[in-house]
What we know:
Elements: H1 2-16, H2 24-52, H3 62-74, H4 93-96, H5 98-121, H6 124-145
The site of heme C has 22 residues, from helix 2, helix 5 and helix 6.
Amino acid sequence: MRITLLATALVAATLAGTAPIGAAFAQGDVIAQRRAGMKRMGEHMQAMRAVTQGQGQVRAQVARVDDMIAWYRTEPALFPPGSDRGDTRALPAIWTNRADFDRQHVEIAERLQALRGAAQAGDAAAFANAFQQVGASCSGCHRPYRAPER
Ligand code: HEC
């Protein structure tokens, strides 16, 4: 519960810090930025999938998870209104359903905390379980908010 409140506060703080972005160039920038970050998240998940299959050290994943936690804290600010136009698969539903989109960031933050705890404890079974949960959060947000591959 404390984690939920903290994460909510962080998301709110991040959103409050979002300046209105008018210029098309700046808009292109946030799209490139969020896509690059998401790509990095994909790489982290791929590497950790291998760990759940016995390739790699569970404890060594803490730094990776920390990078993910930090990323999802700042990510909502990279979805300013209107940034569904351009080289992006972000769907307009993000902005018509903003509270839910933001809530998904809180959810993945909580699941990443569980993953971090399991990594720190070196608990392979808990790590694999938490990894599944994080993966479910990825697809849980992609389904409503990301257009299928063109
Ligand atoms: C809160 C919603 C949300 C969550 C959670 C989320 N994503 Fe995404 N993801 C998106 C959206 C929206 C896009 C499309 C961004 C764009 O094209 O501008 C995207 C795009 C991507 C891309 C494509 C990047 C590119 O090259 O264009 C990858 C890879 C990705 N996500 C991986 C992940 C992984 C892995 C997770 C879980 C660890 C995750 N995402 C969690 C919303 C989310």
